[in-house]
Protein 1
Amino acid sequence: MKIDPNSTADLSAQIASAIRDAIVSGELIVDARLPSEAELADQFQVSRPTVREALKRLAAQSLIRTQRGATGGAFVNRLSFEEAYGQQITTSTLLLSMNEVSFDVACEARYAMERACAPLSAKRRTGDQLATMRAEIHRQSQPGLSDEAFCASDVTFHRALVDGAGNPVLSYQLAGAVEAMQPLMNMITFSERSRERIVALHTAITDALEARNPAQIEALLADLEAYTLKIAHEIAARRRAK
Amino acid sequence: MKIDPNSTADLSAQIASAIRDAIVSGELIVDARLPSEAELADQFQVSRPTVREALKRLAAQSLIRTQRGATGGAFVNRLSFEEAYGQQITTSTLLLSMNEVSFDVACEARYAMERACAPLSAKRRTGDQLATMRAEIHRQSQPGLSDEAFCASDVTFHRALVDGAGNPVLSYQLAGAVEAMQPLMNMITFSERSRERIVALHTAITDALEARNPAQIEALLADLEAYTLKIAHEIAARRRAK
DNA sequence: CGATTTTCATTTGTCTGACATTTGTGCTTG
DNA sequence: CAAGCACAAATGTCAGACAAATGAAAATCG
C-alpha cells in the first residue's frame, strides 16, 4: 500500500483509497486487522489525525469497523446485506430528491424491476410471505389508517413480494427502488388515490401469487403502475391549470 | 441539528448523522454551505478534529464536497448519477465477494434485471446504442483479444443494452448488477466458454433489438443465462471430481 | 481612471503532543 | 485457585499551531 506524493488530493483521501484498493483486491481479507493508527501514520508518513480521517471515510462505507481497547483496532468488515440495503436506500433517496427525476421515469424503473421479480416470486413464494401480504392488505383496509401508516404498509407489502423471489441479491438491488421510490410516489399521489382500488389490486396480486401465476402478477403490476401514473398526471394537470 | 450527549457512539458518527439527516430532510439544500469547521466545533461543543472526522464520513458518501480558501468550506453536494454509479458498483462488488453468494443466485438476479430492460430498450434504443453494440461484437470476434479485453467489451455491450431503455434510474440500478457481476461471472467462466457462441447470442440480441422485438430479446437473454449457468456448473462439477 | 499587483483575512489541510476511555492480559494476593 | 488489580495497548477526544489555498479588498502603477 503506497500513496503518490505528487498528487494534489487530500492525503486522507489517498490513504483511504489505498486501503480500499487493498480490500477490494483481496489483499486484506474479511476480519483482517489493519495496522494500528500509529503504525499506519508511520507507514504513510503522515500524522495520526490524517490516518483517522482516512479510516472514518472507510467506516462510512462500512468497509471497516473499529474496536477500542487492548486487542482493538480497525478490522475489515464483512459487508452484510443489511448494511448494503441501508446505503442503497440512502443513496437512492438522495439521488431522486436532488436530480429532479421525473415521476414517470422513477415510476417506470421501479415497476420494471418489480415485474422482474414476478416469475421468481411465483415459483418460490412461501406461506409466510403470503401471510405478510394479506396482513398488510387487511391493515390497508382499516378506515382510520393515517397516510403515513398506509404508505409504510404499502412498502412492506411490496417488499414481501420482492423477497418472495428468494434471491438476496435481487432483494438488495430492489431495496433502493422500493424503499426510496415508493414513499416518494406516495407523497405525491396519496391525496388523490383511491385506497379501495389499491387494496383491490393488492388483493389480486396476492391471489395471483398464491396461484403461482407470473403473467397475472406482471399484468396487475402494470395496472398498478398505470393507475399510479394516471393519478400523478391528473395532479400535475390540475396544478398547471391553477 | 443536535446530538445526544448520552449516546455511547462516536461523536464524529453522531455529528455526521445529524448533518446527514439535515441534508436528507431538506433542511440543508443542494449547494448550501455548511458552517465552517470551527463554527461546527463550537456548535456541537467538540474539537475541530472531531468535526473533521464527521465531515470526512459525509464526503466518503459524496454527500458534501469541500473547498479550501477564503470562500471555501463544506457544501452540500448534488449527488450525480455518475457518483452514485461508482458507489453502487463498489458496494455490489464487495457484497458479492464477501458473502459467498452462489453463482446461481448472482446470475439469476443479474439476468432478471436485465430482462426487465428489454421491453423499454426495444421501444427506445437509438442508432448510437446499436452501433456501440455492433462495434463491441466486432471486437469480441477478434481472435487475438485478451480475456480481460473480452470481459470489458462484454460489460460495455450489456451496458449499452441497459442504457437503451433510456431511463437513468434504471441504468443506475443496473450499474451494480452489470458492472459488478459480469466481471465476476467472466472470471469464473472465461476459461471454458465458447466465444463464438457468445458472439452469436450477442449478435442475435442486437438483431432483435434493432427489430424492436422485446420477447425475442428476453428469450435470448434467457439463453445466455442458461449457457452461462451450464458452463459454471460444468466447471464446478469438474472441480468436485478432482 | 483603469488595470495590475499586493496584501490580507478566511478556511481547509496537516502536524504535534497530550489526555481520556476502553479492554484484554497477566500478575498479585487472599 | 479465584478474585481483584495494575498495566499496556489501542481508539476517542482535545487544544493549539502552522501551512496552503483562495477570493476579496487595498494599494500601486501606467
Protein 2
Amino acid sequence: MARQRPVSPRKEPSQRRSRELVDLIVKATTRVLLKHGYEGCTTNRVAEVAGVSIGSVYQYFPNKDALVVRVMERHQEKLLGVMTEHLASLKDASLEEAVKTLVHAMLDAHRIEPKLHRVLREQVPRIGALKALHEQHSAYEPLVTAWLDAHREALPVADPAVATWVLIAAVDGVLGRVLVDRPGWLEQQQLARELERLIVAYLRGART
Amino acid sequence: MARQRPVSPRKEPSQRRSRELVDLIVKATTRVLLKHGYEGCTTNRVAEVAGVSIGSVYQYFPNKDALVVRVMERHQEKLLGVMTEHLASLKDASLEEAVKTLVHAMLDAHRIEPKLHRVLREQVPRIGALKALHEQHSAYEPLVTAWLDAHREALPVADPAVATWVLIAAVDGVLGRVLVDRPGWLEQQQLARELERLIVAYLRGART
Amino acid sequence: MARQRPVSPRKEPSQRRSRELVDLIVKATTRVLLKHGYEGCTTNRVAEVAGVSIGSVYQYFPNKDALVVRVMERHQEKLLGVMTEHLASLKDASLEEAVKTLVHAMLDAHRIEPKLHRVLREQVPRIGALKALHEQHSAYEPLVTAWLDAHREALPVADPAVATWVLIAAVDGVLGRVLVDRPGWLEQQQLARELERLIVAYLRGART
Amino acid sequence: MARQRPVSPRKEPSQRRSRELVDLIVKATTRVLLKHGYEGCTTNRVAEVAGVSIGSVYQYFPNKDALVVRVMERHQEKLLGVMTEHLASLKDASLEEAVKTLVHAMLDAHRIEPKLHRVLREQVPRIGALKALHEQHSAYEPLVTAWLDAHREALPVADPAVATWVLIAAVDGVLGRVLVDRPGWLEQQQLARELERLIVAYLRGART
DNA sequence: GATGAATGAGTTTTCATTCAT
DNA sequence: CATGAATGAAAACTCATTCAT
C-alpha cells in the first residue's frame, strides 16, 4: 500500500527566523488543507500561500506528508491541552460530575477548529496516520482509567482500561460523525445530554 | 475543496456483455484498491488488471472516482443485505434479544470483507457530494428507529431517531476503531458483550 | 554510487505508428546529446525536439538513461555492422593483410558518427554503461582470436585471447584519444600506418 | 555543449587557516566523489562532510566543478610525481630498461588510488575547457620523447613525439580498460610483460 | 463499441548559488 | 571572514483523460 516515508522534520529550526518560517509554512499548510483538501494541498501551493520559496519548505520538511503530519500534531497538541485542563478536576468528582466533565472536555476539544478537525479526520487516514490520530486519546486515557479504578467498588466495571477504551471510542465515534454529518449539533445541548446518558448508563451498567 | 464531478454510471450497460465488462472493472478496482490503496488505484492499473482497455473503462465510468464509488456501493449493498437480514427478526424481539441482534448484525457486517472495509474507511477520501454514500447506516436506521418507536413506552427514549443515530454512531465508532487498532477483537466474545451492555444501558437509560 | 535503474524499454512499440515514434525519440535524443551533452539532455528537451509529448517519451522509456542507452545501442549496432563486414575477409589473409583489415575496420567504425561516438564515450561512463561500451568489441573479438589461433605457429603468441584483448584495448584506446584530442588525425594516413606498425610488431613480437 | 565556467580558485588562500580549509574541502570532495559518484557529489554534501559551511566552500571555489577539478589536479600531481620519479632514470637506459621503467611507472601510477582514478575517468564528465587537464600525460611525455630522440639512430622512429603519443595512448588505453574490466590484472606479472612486449616491438618496429 | 497510443498539465523534489547576518 | 538560511529555476516523472483508428 506504499506510503511510509520519513515524516520527521528535516532540520530543527534553530534560529528565531527559521522558527517563524516553519510556523508560517505550517499555517499555510493548514489554510491550504482547509481550502483544497489533501489532494489539492500541493507543496507549491503551500509555499505560495506561505509567501515562501518552495526550497524553504523542503529545507524543513522532507516531503509533502510531513507537512500534513505536522499540522496534525499541532492540532493534537491543542486538543490535548484542552482535554487535560478539563480533566485535571476529575480526581474527586462524583460520577455525574465526572461524566459531565468528560463530555464537556471532549466537546470543547472538538470545538477548537472543527473544520480543520474534520479535514484531518477525513484526509489523514490516507497517509497512514490513523493510528496516530487514535493515539491522541492515549494521552489522557490514563486519567479516566484512574478515576474508574478509584470508583471500582461502586461501579460494575470489570476492566477499567477496557471500559475507558470503549467509552472513548464510542464518544469519539459519535463526535467524529457529528463533525462530518451534523456539524450544527456541536452546539446543541441535547448532544451533550445524550452523551452523558450514554456514559453514565454504560458505567452504572446493567449486566445483560 | 475541489472535487465535484459526475459519479453516476455514464450509461446503463444494456447488453449482457457490457454488464460483464462493468463487473470485471469493478472487481479489478477492488483488487487494486486492496493492493495499492486509493492513491495507487490508477485508472490505467485498473484497466490492466481487468484485462480491459482503458478506453473501455471510460466507456462506462466518467472518471476515476466513479470507479471507487461503485466499489463502495457494492460493498454497502452487501453490508445492507447482512444488516437487513439480521434485523428482519427485530420486530417482536425483547430488548435483550433486539440488542443482541443489532450487535450481532453490526459485527457480522464488519466481517464481510474487513480489509476492503478498512481500506474504504481509511483510504478513500470523502469523494465529492458523496457524503450520502458514507452514511451507510441510513438504510437500516429506520428499522431500528421503528423498533424503538414501538417500544417507546417501556424505554425512556425521548426521540427514537436521535437515539438510533447516537447508538449506531457509537457502535460504529467502536467497530471502526477495532478494525484499525484491534483487529483481533472482532472475534472476541467480550467485544460483543461490552457493546450489548453499552446499548442496553443507554436504552434502559438512567437519566443523569 | 546509486544509479542502476531499469533501462530496458517499457513497452514494445507494436504498431507502425509507435515504431516511428520511438525512432523519432531516439533520433531527437541523439541530436540533443550532441548539442547539449549528457547533462543538458533532459527528457523535456528531447520530447520538445522530437515534437512529441513528454508523456509519449515515458510511454516507451522508463527513464532518462534508457534513452541514452538506446542511442548507444543503436550506434553500436552500426559499428558492429561495419566491423563484421570488414572482418569477414579476414580468414585467409596474410599477417599484413589481416592487420590492414583490422585497422581499416576500426578506423572506419570510428568514422561513422565521430561526434556522437565522442559524446557517448565521454558521457556514457556516468550511467554505468562503460562495460557495455567495452563489450561492443566482444562481438568481433572471436573473429580476431580465431585468426590468431590459426596462425599460431608463425607467431610468438602465447594466448590468442589475451593478445586480442590487449590489441583491441590498445588500438581502441588510441582511437578514443584521437577522437577526443586529435579529431583531425582520423583522416591522416599516418595514424593508420602507426597502428599497423603497432599491431604487426606486437604480433611478430620480440620477446623482451 | 553548455558548461564553460571559471574553474580556477577564487582566491589564493594566503593564511594558514585558509589553506587548511581548502585542504579539508578537497579531501571531502574526494570522499564524496568516491562514495556517491559525480552526480551525487553535491556542494552541500561536500560542505557537510568537510564539516564546513557551504558559504566557506564558495569562498574558495567559484562553483561545483572547480571542486572536482581541484581533486583531479591533486590526483594528477601525485601521478606526475610517481611518473617523473620513475622516469628520472630514463636518460641513459637501454631500450629494454627504458621500457621496463616506463611500464613500471605507468602501472605504479595506476596503483596510487585506483578507485579514485576510476571514478575520475568514468564519472567525471569532460568539464568545460578542461581537455588540457585530461591530458594528464602531457607533463611527462617530453621525458619519453627526449629519450626517443636521443636514441633516434638506433630506432626506426620517424617522429618521436608522435611515437610517444601513440605509445602512451595505447598503454593508457589498456590500463584504463584493465581498471574497469579486469581490476585484478593490475597486480599480474603477465600484464606488465605484455605491455613491455607491445612497446619494445613497436619501437624496434618492423615497418609494414 | 472497443482499443490503446498519445497527451500534457501538474507534482514532487533537488541542488547550485547568493547574501544578510 | 564565516555562516547557513533562503532561494527558485529546472528536472524527472505520473496519470486522468481524449480521440483517431
Protein 3
Amino acid sequence: MADAVADPPRRGRPRSEKARESILHAAAELLLTRGLGAVSMDEIAEHAGVSKATIYRWWGTKELLALDALYYEWTEPTVDPPDTGSLRGDLLALLRPWARVVRTRPYATVIGTFITKAHTDPVFATEYVDRLVNPRRERARTVFERAIGRGELPAGVNVDVALDLLYGALYHRLLHGHARITDRFVTDVVDMTLHGAAGSTHR
Amino acid sequence: MADAVADPPRRGRPRSEKARESILHAAAELLLTRGLGAVSMDEIAEHAGVSKATIYRWWGTKELLALDALYYEWTEPTVDPPDTGSLRGDLLALLRPWARVVRTRPYATVIGTFITKAHTDPVFATEYVDRLVNPRRERARTVFERAIGRGELPAGVNVDVALDLLYGALYHRLLHGHARITDRFVTDVVDMTLHGAAGSTHR
Amino acid sequence: MADAVADPPRRGRPRSEKARESILHAAAELLLTRGLGAVSMDEIAEHAGVSKATIYRWWGTKELLALDALYYEWTEPTVDPPDTGSLRGDLLALLRPWARVVRTRPYATVIGTFITKAHTDPVFATEYVDRLVNPRRERARTVFERAIGRGELPAGVNVDVALDLLYGALYHRLLHGHARITDRFVTDVVDMTLHGAAGSTHR
Amino acid sequence: MADAVADPPRRGRPRSEKARESILHAAAELLLTRGLGAVSMDEIAEHAGVSKATIYRWWGTKELLALDALYYEWTEPTVDPPDTGSLRGDLLALLRPWARVVRTRPYATVIGTFITKAHTDPVFATEYVDRLVNPRRERARTVFERAIGRGELPAGVNVDVALDLLYGALYHRLLHGHARITDRFVTDVVDMTLHGAAGSTHR
DNA sequence: CGGTAATCGAGACGGTACGTCATGTCTTACA
DNA sequence: TGTAAGACATGACGTACCGTCTCGATTACCG
C-alpha cells in the first residue's frame, strides 16, 4: 500500500487537520439533524469555520462529503466479530449493537439520499458500497462461514440469501420506519432466518 | 360511500382530465428514465404540454406528483392474491410478478427519494405508506392468514417479522442493487423464510 | 353620434349596470390607493363582487379599465370655462380647481403608468389623450382665444407654448413631487407665464 | 475625500468590472429600445453574458438597475454650465443639448416607469431625484443666480417657479408626446418664460 | 309560454416573469 | 501549496399575474 511507504515531504503549506475534522464534524451534525437535502454547503462551511473552497478541494460533491462524515460518525464499538460459540450468538452479537446505534440518530434520511445518488452515479455507488455496506456484510459472512466450519450449517447453505434476509429486514424497518428496530425484533429476525417461519412461533 | 351520492353540480370551469393524465404520464416517463432529482418541474410541464402553475395547483410538491405518477404507472396485473392451495405457491404468485415489474424499469432511484422525503415530511410519509407500501404488504398478510387457517402454520407465528423478511430482502436488493432480483432469488427468499437457513440448502 | 340614434333593441340579457359601476368604483379605489402595478385584476374583480371575465368583456386591458375608472373619478366641479373678464382670472378659475382635486388623491402614480403605456401602445395613447389630456387643454385654449378676441393678447401669440408652460409646470410638480401644488404656486405659474420671469418678482 | 485614502486591500474575489459594465450597457440598450416593462431580467442577463444572480447581487430591483443604466447612458457632453454673457444664451446652451439627446432615443417610456416607481417607493424616489433630476435642475439654478448677480434679473425673482416652467414644459412634451421638442420649441419656452406670453409674439 | 341569445359568477388554464436559493468554480490576498 | 473570503455561472425553485377559456345559471326578448 502506498500509505505504508514513507511519504515524500510535501511542498507548500500542509493540509490543515483541524479544518478536516471540523468539516466532518459539522457535516455529520447537520446531516443527522435535518437531512442532506435541507443542509447547504455554505451552511456546513460556516458551521465548520471554513471556506467552501476548502471543502470542495478535498471532497468532490456534497454526497461524498456526507458519506465520509457518516463513515466517521457511524462507528460501532465492536471491532471484530466475536466468537460466542454459536451462530445465533454470533449474529446477535453483531446485529444488536448495529440496531442500538441506528436507534440513536436518524440515519435513515441520509441513507435514502445515498441510495438515490448511488443509482445515478456509479462512482458514488462504488464508494458507498465499499465504505458503508460491504464491511458490515462481510463481517456477517465471516460468521456464517465459521458456523459452516463448526458444522452448525451444511456447506451448501445459500449465505447470500441469508444475508439479504437478515440485513434486508433490518434495513426495511430502518428505511420505511413502519415499526421500531427493538432488540426483540433483531432476535426474531435471526431466529426466523435460521429456522424459518414454521419453526419459530410468536411469544 | 359518499361518492355514490349525486355530486352537487360543480361551479366554474371543470378540471381538465386531459391535462391531469398527460401530467401524470409525462412525470412517470421522465421519473423512471432519469430519477426525481434530475427532472425539473418545468420539464414535466413542457412534456405534458401544460403550464407549471397547473401542476402546482393540484400537487403541492414534486414528490407528491411523483408518488401519484408512480401509483398509476406501477399497477400490477394481479387483482386478488390468488389461492394456489399452499402458502409457498401463494407467496410465489404474489412476489414473482412484483419482481418482474421491478426489473423492467429503474424504480429504485425514485423510491430512494420517497424514503428520504418520508423521513422529513410526515404528510408525505402517510401518503407514501398508504399508497405504495401498505397495499402490497396487506395482500401478503392475507396470504399468511389463509395459511394459518389451513393449518400450514401455527396460529402463533409472527407474521410481521415474516413480512419484513420477505419484503426486506427484496427491497434490499432493489435499493442497494448488489445483485439482481431473479425469479430464482424470489424462490430462495420464500423458501428460506418458511424453513430457515438450516433447512434450505443451496442448489 | 351613433349613441344618439335610438338603439335597436338588443337581444339576450342586457349588460348589468350595477356590475359596471361597482367595477369602476373598485378599480378607482384600489388604483388611487396602491397604484396600478400593485393591484391585480383578480383583486379588482373580488372587490367589485364580479367575475374577472365580466371585466375583460368590457375592457380589453388593465390599463384601459384604469383609464376609464380615473375618468369617472377625476371629474372637476366646473363644467364650462367661466368668463371672469380677464385672462388671468379665467386661467386661475380653470387651474385652481384642478390643483385642488389633484391634491386630494395620489393621481400621479397612475398617470405615470398611463404615460409609459401610451408610449408603447398607440391605441391606448389615443384613448388617453382623448379622455384625460385634450379636454382640459382645449378648455384652456378657449380661454386664450377669448383673451385674444378681447385684445388682451396680440393675435400672433404662441398659444401652444403657453399651454405647455402652464400645464407643464403643474404636471411637473405632480409627477416629480419635488414640491406641493399650492394655490400660490398656481398663481405664480399663471403670472410668470403671462408676464415673464423679469416682470414678476417674488413676494 | 475618503476615496483618496489608500483602500484597505479587499478580501475575497473582487467584483468583476467587466460584468458590471456589460450589465449596464445591455440594460440601457434594451430599455431604450423596448421600455422597462417589456424587458425581462433574464433577457438582460443573457444579453450581458452574465448570471441573473449577479445582477440581483448588486441591484435590488429592475428599476434601480434601469436608473443606473440610464445614468451612465444619459451623459451630456457639457460639463459646466457655460457663461455666454446673457441669461437667455446660458439657458439655450443648457437646454438645447438636453433636447437633442432626448430626441435621439425614447427616454420617455423609461422615465414614466421611474415616476410611477418613485411614487410608491421612497428609497427609489430619493435615488431618482438625486441622480437624474436634481443635477440638471441645479445647473439651471446656477445660471439664474449668475443672471441675478449680473443685474439681468431682480434679486426677488422666483427661481423655483421659473425652473418648473422651463423643465415642466420640456418634460410635458417629452412625456405626453403631443408635439416634438424642436430647437425652436426650446427657444420659445425660454423666451416666454423670460418675457411672458404677452411679450413674445409668434413668428 | 317556451325558445334563443347574450350576460354573469366561478374558477381552471397556458404563458411568462419574478426574485430566491444552492451547487460547484474561480479569483484574489494572505499564511 | 493551502486557506478564507466571496464573486460568479448555471439552473431549478415555487409564486404571482395576465388574459383566455369553459362550465352552469340567469335574464331578457321574441315568436
Protein 4
Amino acid sequence: MRSSRSDLLEVYELLLRSYGEQNWWPVDEEYHREHGTDPREEIVIGAVLTQNTSWRNVKKAIENLKREGALSFEGVLNTPLDKLEELIRPSGYYRQKARRLKVVSEKLSPVSKVESIGREELLSIEGIGRETADVILLYAGGRPYFVIDAYTKRIVERIFGVRGSYEELRSWFEGNLPKDVELYKEFHALLDEHAKRFCRKDPLCEGCPLTQVCIQPSR
DNA sequence: CCCCAGGCCGCGC
DNA sequence: GCGCGGCATGGG
C-alpha cells in the first residue's frame, strides 16, 4: 500500500484548507449554561438520534427535546416513553431510539463515565454500535478513537484503495496519524463534509480538492 | 416515483 | 466472521 502517514496528513491539510474548521460536535453551549446541564449529554443523545438519519432531521428532534427540558440524561429518564417517542419522531426509528435513549442515559449516568468507560463496555449497551461508541469516546470523552462511517470508508477506498472492516479501518487511521484528539475530531468532520460536497456516491471529481492525491480522479 | 441520510440489532449461514 | 431485513422520518 502506497498510502503512508504523510499522505494521510496531506489529505487532512488539503481538506482543512478547502473547507476550514468544522468544529464538530455541534452543541448548544448557551442552552446548557442556562439549564445547568452537561453538553456531553447532548453529544451522546445526538449520537443515538443521528444513526442512519440526516442531521437535519436530528436537529428537529433536539429542538423538541430542548423545548421540553429533556435534552439531558435526567430529562430523558423523566420523560414518559410515549412522550419521548413523540418528541424525537422527526429523527426516524423513533420507537427504537426512544427506548435506546432511556437505556443509554441510565447506563452512562453520571456522564463523567465517558472519560473512563471501556470501549467494550460501551459496545455492550443496547443501541451503541462501533461508530456510536467511538463518537461518544472521541467527542464526549475527548479520547483518541478515530470514528469510521460510510463516508470515511468510501473516501479512503477511492483515494487510497484502502478497504476493510470497521476495526481494520479504525486501526489504519489510528496507526497512520499522530494520537491527537483534536486532529481526530476535525479530520472525521472534514471527511464527512468532503463526502457530501464531492465524494458522493456519484462523485463530482471536477474541482475536487483531493485530485492530486487520489488514485482514480475523474471517473 | 425513486434514493438516501453522521447505524444497530437479531438472525442465518 | 459476513450478509440480510427491519426499523421511520423528511429532503432532493
